[in-house]
Amino acid sequence: MQSLKNFLYTIADDNLILGHRNSEWTGLGPMLEEDIAFSSMAQDKVGLAYQLYQLLHTDMGEGHPDKVAFARTETEFKCCQLVEYPIGEYDFSLVRHFLFDHAMYELFSMLTTSAYPALAQLAVKVRGELKYHVLHADTWMKKLGNGSEESKARMQSALNYAYPLALGIFEPLEGEQELVQYGYFEGMAVLQERWLASIMPVLETAGLKLPVNAEATFGGRKGYHTEYLAPLLKEMTEVFAIDPEAEW
Amino acid sequence: MSDQNKSLDPRIARLELPQGESIVKPDEYWGTFEVFLQEKRGKFHQHVGSVHAPEQEMALVFAKEQYARRGKCVNMWVVKTTDIFAFQLADEDMFATTPDKQHREAGMYKVRDRIQEYQNRQK
After folding, report:
1. Residue A74 lies in a domain
2. Per the CB < 8 Å rule, is A34 touching B62?
3. DSSP assignment, residue B37?
4. What is this model's ipTM?
5. Partners of residue A135 in chain B, C-beta under 8 Å
């Protein structure tokens, strides 16, 4: 079913690309414990992407996960533009992590009752690890939002910058109606509502405000990407490209 | 600080940090928390190490990835290191004769024969 394939690629690509991006902090994190925690969560994201590619491979006849991850062209990726942006300063990376992981937590909570059993099973399995990702993000948001004048200002400006991009997570999908009809997924509009309900109390405690009249950055789901995706793919696929048939 | 103490990491070396005094002021670093991990419900929490953190919530967040990302774990505790009340290391001699006190070990008493005898009588 094309709409279901498209949906799985969308989630998998988001996680693969942000997982790769966040792994760029490995060894450079603000302090040892945080470096390890952030790197570990980046690995979780790549792992989640792998499991979704594996579903596409075994259930839907798509290519091997390695091929799918490393041998597609830029326009074949369905990720939203939020995940493509460079890591920037730690404030941006944290805010992106906060906005994205709340969306993933709400998405996979929703998918635990999906009519596609393999996806529902996966959702039950990963929801716990996503719960931790959200706890990590919330703790930092509250800490820095209520920290010094500088930390508060930096978190607010990172939020202003990242929020329109984060709205791009919820860009309507091709064939979304069909997914809703079959009970595979409740749809992006419902997801966005749950996401907002889940981030608002944290932002309030952190003393941060959502920018008003933010316009969603769409395009990623249709294969339109920022200038940042191509260099990322080039770096990520460098080793694979040397010998695509190599046995690991 | 002599040249020998310069970092070999180029990312740190190119920051050209001032040599000599520590650039970290006493109120700028985080304290430590001791981490206790419970492998299974009903088992004791056991000390596994420590983490740096500004407060207890963050300490738990860090503890999870430092000490529970590989093995089994169902729960964790963190306790501020300064809240641990301990014996002085110099008082180690208080424990010195413990290994000699075999009368506190069940193995010290040869009662097996008598238990056997009792069991035989019950048959």
Report:
1. yes
2. yes
3. E
4. 0.89
5. 61
